[in-house]
Amino acid sequence: MRTINQAGIRSLGVAASPADVHAYLSDAGNLPAWAPGFAPRISPSGSSWLVTRDDGEFTIDVVAEPRSRAVDFVSASDHARGLFARVLPNGDGSEVVFTLLFAPDTPEDVVATQVLTLETELAAVRDACEQ
């Protein structure tokens, strides 16, 4: 039997071009500005990025694809784990879609808290890109 994870999906319209929003998300150096809970400090580590938090360190890859305007923020050791972002054209601006996958047994309160965080992060991306 196949395992299907729970998904937390949120999107938000941004009054900026898809190319500009994609470029902002693709720059890992911007992570502390829009996702400070996840990555308060980040530094290059070879072809990956070292995230430093009060509770420890871990390495991520930022996989950006300009043609599809995809940006994935994934575990360096497991590209199936992470935040998957897409930037879609929406009128004269963009629609930014964040997808976060959870193990099937993740408690609902944990999922709900993380989905609220996605909304906060999307708003921060919007605010940065609309300046």
Helix-strand blueprint:
Layout: E1 6-14, H1 18-26, H2 31-34, E2 41-45, E3 48-53, E4 56-65, E5 70-75, E6 78-90, E7 93-102, H3 108-129
Antiparallel strand pairs: 1-7, 2-3, 3-4, 4-5, 5-6, 6-7
Helix pairs in contact: 1-3
Which key features would you list for this structure?
single chain, 131 residues, alpha+beta, Alpha-D-Glucose-1,6-Bisphosphate, Chain A, domain 4, seven-stranded antiparallel beta sheet, 3 helices, globular
Structure commentary:
By secondary structure, this protein is α+β, with helices and mostly antiparallel strands. It has one domain: Alpha-D-Glucose-1,6-Bisphosphate, Chain A, domain 4, CATH 3.30.530. Helix content is 27%, strand content 45%. The chain has three helices and seven strands; from the N terminus they run E-H-H-E-E-E-E-E-E-H. The chain has a seven-stranded antiparallel sheet. A hairpin with a 4-residue loop joins strand 4 and strand 5. Helix 1 crosses helix 3. The chain is globular. The termini are far apart. The relative contact order is 0.26. The model has no long low-confidence stretch (mean pLDDT 95).
Shape: globular
The CATH topology assignment is Alpha-D-Glucose-1,6-Bisphosphate, Chain A, domain 4
How much β-strand is present in the residues? over 45%
List the domain count as a whole number.
Answer: 1
Total DSSP E strands: 7
Q: For this structure, what is the CATH class?
A: Alpha Beta
Examine the secondary-structure arrangement and name the CATH architecture.
2-Layer Sandwich
Q: Averaging pLDDT over every residue, what do you get?
A: 95
According to CATH, the homologous superfamily is START domain
Poorly predicted ranges (pLDDT <50, ≥5 residues)? none
Q: What Rg, in angstroms, do the CA atoms define?
A: 15 Å
